[in-house]
Structure formats: C-alpha cells, structure tokens
Amino acid sequence: MVEPAMIDPFKRTWWMPGWGEIALSSLIWALVSGMLLVPGFNAHHDPFQSVSRLISVDAFGYFLHSFHSYSGDIFLIAAFVHTIEYLIKRTHRSYLFKQWFYLILLMIVSILAVFSGFLSIGSKESASALHIFDGILQTVPVIGGQLSLFFIQLTRNINPFSVIYLHHAATFTILTVILTYVHIKRLKAERYALLYTGFLLALLALILPASLGHPADAVVSVVKGPWYFIGLQEMLSWMPVFVAGIAFPLIIIGLLAWLPQLKSKDRPVLYAIAVLLIFYLMESVIGWFLRGEGWQIFGR
Amino acid sequence: MAFNFNHLNRRRFLKALKNGLYFIGIAVFSKLTGRFINRAAAGSGTVQLNISQPNQPFRVYDRFFMIRDKDRLRFLSRTCPHLGCTVQWNDRAGHMACPCHGSRFTKQGRYLSGPAKADLHELSYELVDENNIKIFLEDG
C-alpha cells in the first residue's frame, strides 16, 4: 500500500527563496539602509524630531525610513520561520553544543538589534518601551542594575536614546553580523534572494509607509509596543514583571539550548516550546486586538 | 606496570589552578566593570516652577501632576510605579491611567487598579523664593 505523501509546509517553490536566505538578505538591506539613514538621524538632541524631519523633507527619506523599518521586521519573521522549519526537520540533533549555543545567541542579539532600533526613535511608544525594558532588567538578580545602566542609562546626565541608538548601530548589529557569519560561514546572500527581498521591502515601503508613532509629549490613551512584544506587554499587565520579562523568555531559551543534548528524545521539549509559543501568540492577539483605551479590554 | 600517581596529581593541580585563575580573573573583571558602569550613571534632577500664576487646583506638567489642596501644594510623579511609563490624566473618567498596562490612580494619586500596586510617588520640593519652587525629580 502506498502511503500518502506528507505535506511539507516548507517545501521550496521555484519563485520563493529559502527563509534563511530571506533573513540574510533582509539583514543586508537593513545594514545598507541603516547606513544611509545615519546622516539624517540625531539621537542626541531630539531623535523623534530628526526622524520626522527626515521623512518630511524628502520623499526618498520617507521611503528609506519605511524600508529600514520593514527590513528589521522581515528579518525577524524570516529568521523565526527558518528556525521553526529546521526545528521540525530536527537538524539540531546534528549540532554540537557550542555551535548550537552560538545560534541561540544569534537569536537573542537579532531580536535586540531590531528592538533597539525601535527604541532609538524617541517616540511616545519607544520612550514607554525604554522604561519597561529598564524595569524588566532591574528585576534580574544581582546584576540587574548594571545591565540597566549598560544598555539604557535612564538618568538625566545622558539622553537614553543616544545610548540605545549606539547599541543598535554598533553592539547588537556587529554581534548579529558576526554570529550570522559563524552560522553560515558567509555574508553574501544569493543574488535572487537579495533581489526578491529588496523588491518585497520596496513594495511594502511604498504601499504601507511605516508608522513613526506619536511624539514623546503626546497625550495618548493607550501605548502599544512593537508587534513582536505586544504579547509581552499583555503578559506584564497581569503577571509579575520577573516572570513575564525574564523567566518566560529564559525558559524558552533554556528548552531550545537543551535540544541537541536530547537527540531522539526531543519530542516533549519541542511540544513544550510549541505550547509556550502558542501561549505567546494568544497573548499577542489579546494585546493587539482587544486592548483599547487605558489598556482595558475593549476600551474605547 | 607501575601507575604514575604523581603525574596525575600534578596534572589535576595545574588544571585546578588554571580554572581558579580564570574564575578570579572573571570575578575581578566583573567587579571593575560593574563599578565603572555605576559611576557613569549618578544623578538626580530638579525642575524650577513659577507658582505665581492664577491658582489652579490641578495641573498636568511633563513629568508630574501639580495638585493644589487649599494652600497645600503636592507634586505627584507621572512615572508609573509599575514599569515607568508616563501616567496620563483622563478628564472624562476623572482618574489617572497608565497607557502601557492599564494601572489606574485617583486624582490624589492613590492606587485604584492594575499591576502598579502602589500609589504615585510624591515629589519633594523647596521654596526658592515666594514665586518659585524647586521640585526634586526622582531618577529616570
């Protein structure tokens, strides 16, 4: 009896590059567009005003800002799907712990690279997110205060946006590039993938200009963070800060790190990771669609 | 065949010494780095405010609320005690609310609901002269 062929949700089509190539191409486009944005961005005085001016005085600046913003988003999405694809294919079984550890690090710095870019803008949303990030770091035992000072420095001596911008442009970007090279031993994307991703990003930037958020002094009834952290924002509204902000991500990271050791007995851990991610997705849906004014359910 | 215990013990000792030196090196480096980071960040700020304007019982400033209760002035920090977002005044509802996670406070800054679990912090101030006061903002 012939068994029906399994449906492979990640089966490559002729017109679409692999998710890993899309992630790498997005990273390259983010680097290029980010470098072009540097002269117009002033993180020290009023970053929000500099971005507003950048997108209003020149149509290309408007396009470039959206392009850069979407390149970070597409990078995260493609890297996530790429990760899921290879977890399902159980490729972690062939990794040595050191190689796998570098991949986990790459995942963390990639998220921080994109998030720190969001924080650098100086909008109402990013200012609130900066405070929340600071509050979460402060709950880390022993070194929480130092971590907060290292990454953010919420004091009146220094503009915190300039600090986080430096980490975005330097610390996290450099680490992401290095760890990407360690992962795939190259930084050159396939030409077709680069063109495909560039075209996709340009189309998004033209059709759906990326939102800048509200000015820092705006009066708003609800503040929503970036889409990938809405779930965390929702969890923080009802869970202790340490559990939502530190323990929950650490559990996922710990389970991922454990996988290569388990070899063929990895199924329970993979299911546990899936359950946690589905839970996070549910929290994201609640936070995105159901939370309104004052972060109340159905608040208008 | 005689087993060379001396060789094994010497190897173990050198390995333990190497690991111990690594540990001491990391501990010293962490301590120096932590101290350096702490020193970079000190400071609190103040804001000077002119209070000679017409008496308003309640006013919203960038970093604080001003409440005038008969002749007593109070300044409540707009930093939410939960995770530091800026609390907004909701005129329609008659209370203060945090737009990030939904904490609510009365007009006097008392905690009502949400994850904050604490009242808004009251800021201290001192008189500069009869028309001006200096308000001491908290860090961050």
Task: Give structural notes.
The complex is a heterodimer of chains A (300) and B (140). Chain A is an all-alpha fold and 300 residues long. In chain A, 67% of the residues lie in helices and 0% in strands. Chain A contains 11 helices and no strands. Chain A has helices at residues 19-37, 47-57, 59-88, 97-120, 124-138, 144-151, 160-184, 191-207, 230-236, 241-262, 267-290. In chain A, helix 3 packs antiparallel against helix 4 (97-120) and helix 4 runs antiparallel to helix 10 (241-262). The longest helix of chain A is centred in the first third of the chain and has 30 residues, at 59-88. Chain A is globular, with a radius of gyration of 20 Å. The relative contact order of chain A is 0.13. With 140 residues, chain B is an alpha+beta fold. Chain B folds into 2 domains: 9-42; 46-136, Rieske Iron-sulfur Protein. Chain B has 1 helix and 11 strands, in the order αβββββββββββ. Chain B has one helix at 5-40; strands spanning 45-50, 58-60, 64-69, 72-77, 88-90, 95-97, 104-105, 111-113, 122-123, 125-127, 132-137. Chain B has a 4-stranded antiparallel β-sheet with strand order 2-3-4-9, with no helix packed on it. Chain B is elongated and about 90 Å long. The mean pLDDT of chain B is 83. The chains are: A mainly alpha (300), B alpha+beta (140). The A-B interface holds A 127-128, 131-132, 134-136, 143, 145-146, 149-150, 153-158, 217, 219-223, 233, 236-238, 241, 291, 294-296 and B 33-34, 37-38, 40-45, 62, 79, 82-86, 88, 90, 93, 97-102, 104, 114-115, 137, 139-140.
